[in-house]
Design brief:
It is a single chain. The chain is an alpha+beta fold. It has ten helices and 18 strands. The strands form five sheets. The protein has a six-stranded mixed sheet with strand order 4-3-2-1-5-6. Strands 7, 8, 9, 10 and 18 form a five-stranded mixed sheet that branches.
């Protein structure tokens, strides 16, 4: 009996997908795909590491240096190779075990795998056809199971607390980097790590991917905080906006528009809807308010082991959304030289619609200035 029932269940589901899609071989590198399927996340360098899965066999091409550590996470067979001998003999062994010598094999490649790993594999197959993981591992990963929901929810509960603590820590003269440190320390005290953090004071918020710097917080200044932690292997992601002092009328107006766009997109997010319809729901609200040209990015991205993964919620995405999909809804309006305002929720699709992970309200966070 396997010590790793979740990996066995996912491997079985992958083989069902392989049968349905006519796939003979799936090749995964040291990536989030490998971690999701097998629980193994080996050190990644130039030494070829691959998990090869056929409909009857699964095994690793594994450098000996990684074997002892990886063995703690899987009971799948290893085809080992040492630095002084190279990987070719071990690669041939695992390909034979996968019955991969016949011509015209339909091969799925991990799109995140190093190019030299992919070419090494393809060079030792006979006229294969190849594609990426969209309809196999990717399709399975896009629909989260109960354990993944619980992990993502736990990360978001912690994120809620960190964001609240960050807004309470605002003080005149502190820098954006100072606030990043407050958030990072909060995560660390709870056993999590910083996944990313964008702190934007004042005009910095008009840059959607702002890198926190030495901008200092002043009285009556808008604050945008987009941050996420990683807890037990899964990340959180949330954006909240507020004001240090008294918000002006324009800021309050824009905040209301963006919040209405979030609400519209959440209402449009249902199983069977197209990703572009969710994007359109948010974009239409912002366009109707006269800020259409100030919404500078897509409405959302999927989230799982990776902070960005399918499905992507864009104006051109014809992807049908499915129950179990997890993705962000994060419209924004960016007024250069003044402020940017983005509100972000991560949702999971249930049969009846979208469920938000964060328990923190999206209210305009007004922080009084403390002398």
């Amino acid at each position: 009996m396997t010590r790793f029932p979740l990996a066995q269940s996912r491997l079985s589901a992958l083989r069902t997908r392989m049968e349905a899609t006519g796939t003979d071989l799936v090749a995964l590198g040291p990536s989030s795909h490998m971690a999701w399927l097998s629980g193994v996340h080996p050190h990644g360098d130039e030494r070829p590491v691959m998990l090869l899965v056929s409909r009857a066999y699964a095994g690793f091409l594994m450098p000996s240096l990684n074997a002892a550590s990886a063995r703690q996470s899987t009971d799948l067979p290893f085809h080992l190779w040492r630095d002084d001998e190279g990987p070719l003999a071990a690669l041939h062994d695992v390909l034979r075990a996968c019955d991969a010598a016949r011509p015209g094999l339909s091969v799925v490649l991990d799109e995140t795998m190093r190019t030299d790993f992919s070419l090494l594999l393809l060079d030792h197959l006979d006229t294969p056809t190849r594609r990426f993981t969209d309809d196999t591992v990717g399709a399975l990963r896009a629909c989260k199971d109960a354990a993944e929901f619980d992990a993502i929810k736990a990360a978001h509960r912690l994120n809620d607390q960190a964001v609240q603590a960050a807004f309470e820590a605002l003080r005149v003269g502190m820098t954006e980097r100072d606030l990043v440190q407050v958030i990072q320390d909060f995560y660390g005290a709870q056993g999590a790590t910083l996944e990313f953090c964008s702190v934007c004071f004042g005009p910095s918020g008009a840059f959607p991917h702002h890198t926190p710097g030495m901008t200092r917080l002043e009285r009556d200044m808008p604050v945008l905080l987009d941050t996420g932690c990683r807890l037990n292997g899964y990340p959180s992601d949330m954006t909240r906006c507020g004001y240090f002092g008294t918000p002006d009328a324009t800021y309050t107006e824009v905040f209301t528009v963006v919040d209405q766009a979030v609400r519209a997109a959440i209402a449009a997010a249902r199983p069977g809807a197209l990703a572009r319809d969710v994007d359109k729901a948010a974009r239409d609200v912002i366009t109707a308010a006269g800020y259409g040209d100030r919404f500078l990015h897509r409405t959302g991205h999927g989230l799982g082991i990776d902070i960005h993964e399918p499905p992507y919620i864009t104006a051109t995405a014809d992807t049908p959304l499915a129950e179990g999909n997890v993705f962000s809804i994060e419209p924004g309006i960016y007024l250069e030289g003044r402020f940017g305002l983005r509100l972000e929720e991560i949702v999971i699709l249930r049969s009846e619609g979208a469920e938000v992970f964060s328990d923190m309200p999206r209210d305009l966070l007004v922080r009084p200035v403390l002398d």
